[in-house]
Amino acid sequence: MRNSVALLLMGLLVVAMSLTTGCATIVNGDMVSVPVYTTPPEAKISVAGQELRSPATAQIPRGKGDFKMTIEKEGYKTGYVLLTQSLDGWLWGNILLGGLIGLLVDFISGDAYDLEPELVNFDLVKGELIGAPPPEAKPEAPSSP
């Protein structure tokens, strides 16, 4: 008898916990891992306050909007990738299971969101660096009086 009561209470506890958290909150963490590969490698990657060298995995906070990634390497043009916030697929688990509270938890916590693209594969283009200073100006010929 005691074992069946303990099992019943454990089951009720699991059901109560599932109603107070969302599917995306359970499955996802607070950060989105975005792998970044560049050709050539060893490019400097700047995003969300991080500076990395490719290949690397950027850790981007979930639910904070879009992020601009800058990719730079000497002798190559600077590249940019926009990481766009989108709804996470696990969010729909709340709708299917009827968890309105879980749905709200996911949106409030930011765990309802993901970033696209999920993987960055970037080919740098050889050329002048954007924002490089112009070449030296030729001295002007003296003017005659």
Question: Mind explaining what this structure looks like?
Answer:
The structure is a single chain. With 145 residues, the chain is of the alpha+beta class. It has one domain (2-123). The chain has 4 helices and 8 strands, in the order H-H-E-E-E-E-E-E-H-H-E-E. It has helices spanning 2-20, 23-27, 91-97, 100-109; strands at 31-39, 44-47, 50-53, 56-61, 67-72, 79-87, 113-116, 120-123. A 5-stranded antiparallel β-sheet has the order 3-2-5-6-7, with no helix packed on it. Strand 5 (67-72) and strand 6 form a beta hairpin.
Beta-strand residue fraction = 25-35%
**General shape:** elongated
Query: What are the low-pLDDT stretches, counting only 5+ consecutive residues below 50?
Result: 16-28, 137-141
Distance between the termini: 115 Å
Order of strands, main sheet, comes to 3-2-5-6-7
Q: Largest sheet at a glance?
A: 5 strands, antiparallel
- According to DSSP, the number of beta strands is 8
What's the order of the H and E elements? HHEEEEEEHHEE
Class by alpha and beta content: alpha+beta
Rg over alpha carbons: 25 Å
Helix fraction? 25-40%
Summed up, the helix count is 4
